[in-house]
Every structure is written in C-alpha cells, then in structure tokens.
Amino acid sequence: MTFPFPAVLFDLDGTLVDSASDIAEAVNRMLAELGLPRVPEARILGWIGEGAHQLITSALRDAGSTLDADAVYARFMVHYEACLLLDPRLYDGVVDTLQALRDRGVRMAVCTNKPSRFVPPLLAAMGIDGYFEGVVGGDSLAWRKPDPRPLLHLAAQLDVEPARCLMVGDSETDFAAARAAGMPVVLVSYGYPRSFDLHAAGALAVIDRFGELIGLE
Question: Which residues are named in the active-site annotation (predicted)?
Fold first, then answer.
C-alpha cells in the first residue's frame, strides 16, 4: 500500500510529543524566580506554539508584569533545558506510524517553533530521531511558522515539490504556514489548538489518533 505523499513534515509539540507539562513547569519556574505566582498548566497550553519569546511574553502579560521577554529570555532557557526531559511522552501510534511511512519510502522532517537546540535531544530521548532527514527549529532560520519559509526550506532540502509535501500539525500556526507554502495539511485533534477551530479550517483531514495518518488516500 502506497502513501499519497512522498514527504511529510511534522510539527513537534502537540503533534508527535506531549510536552505540555514540561513546558508549563519551565514557565512556572521562571515565574517563581521572578516572584510571580504559578499558573495552571491548562492556561499555559494556550500560549504554546509560537516560539519561546511569545510564550514568555504571554506568561508575563498574564501575570501583570511590566518586564520585557528579552530581559528574562536567558533565564527562561535555563529552566526550559532543565525541564525538557522531565516527562515528555510520545502520542499513541507515533512510532508505528513513522515506521510504516518509512517502509513506504516516505521522507520525513520536523518543522517546529521550539528553540532548535532542544529539538535533537528531545527526539533522541523519544527514540524517533532516526526517522527524520531534516529538522528546523524556531530559530534555525530568520523566519518561523506561520511564515511558510521554514516549510519551503525543508521541502527543498528533501528535494520534493511543496505541493507534494504533507504538513501535519495541531494549530493555526501550522495550518497557516502550510497554506502559505502551498502544502496540503492534516491537523491532529489531540494537541494544543488553542481557540483554533480545526474542523472549520479546511484541512485535508482532522485526525483523532496519530495512526489514522497512514490511512490517508
């Protein structure tokens, strides 16, 4: 059985890996260091997906702080690194599906807004680093999602036309980047969509389980 796309680009947090609790802990450690109250993980979920700088900005704004994200960025990165591998978990079906795609000759890459230096150790810890021929993080290039250029960069690296690449993500950021890049997109329903209406977006499909990806026609 063949797969309809020769290449697939994946978002990371909220698509391949459930890292919300670790990201939330990093945010809360930063807030505590600043003398600000911790916030529930559920609230932090709504801030994930647009890169670390925006995550910090959202947390500071929510806390009523007048600090600028640049002022605390370096300290946040210390907490981010310390929390990176506390309790990340692959979503159900990820390994089997990646292996099935590889068996069908599909080429794969990761496009995430996570700071680039944290992506390889997370993929390695999850045991899935060997599946991907390319990785672009939020600071790998001068642009990050929802700008399409990180996706186009990976398509060029894989030597596959953008229209023949499938983007798989969980948020409006992923959807907008894929649409602007001219790529079809599949959205997963279990990630961190914030207020984005996945089902009204017009994606190729919205899947409830990662393994459903292999059944695309």
Answer: 11 (nucleophile)
Cα separation, 71 vs 13, in Å, equals 25
Q: Known catalytic residues?
A: 11
Whole-number pLDDT of residue 147: 98
Determine if residue 139 is labeled as part of a ligand binding site: no
Closest-CA residue to 211 (of 98, 104, 126): 98
**Radius of gyration, alpha carbons of the chain:** 17
Domain end, chosen from 33, 52, 83, is at 83
Q: Is 170 annotated as a binding residue?
A: yes
Give burial (CB, 10 Å; 0-12/13-18/19+) of 129: middle
pLDDT digits (tens, 9 = 90+) for 54-88: 999 999 999 999 999 999 999 999 999 999 999 99
With contact defined as beta carbons under 8 Å apart, do 21 and 41 qualify?
Answer: yes
CATH classification of the domain holding 170: 3.40.50.1000
In this model, does residue 194 exceed pLDDT 90? no
Where in 137-192 does DSSP place strands (E)?
165-169, 185-188
For residues 78 and 98, membership in a common domain is answered with: no
Q: Is residue 1 part of a domain?
A: no
190-195 — which CB contacts under 8 Å span 24+ positions? Answer: 190/14, 190/91, 191/11, 191/13, 191/14, 191/15, 192/13, 192/14, 192/20, 192/45, 192/46, 192/48, 192/49, 193/14, 194/45, 194/46, 194/49, 195/46
Same domain, 14 and 24: no
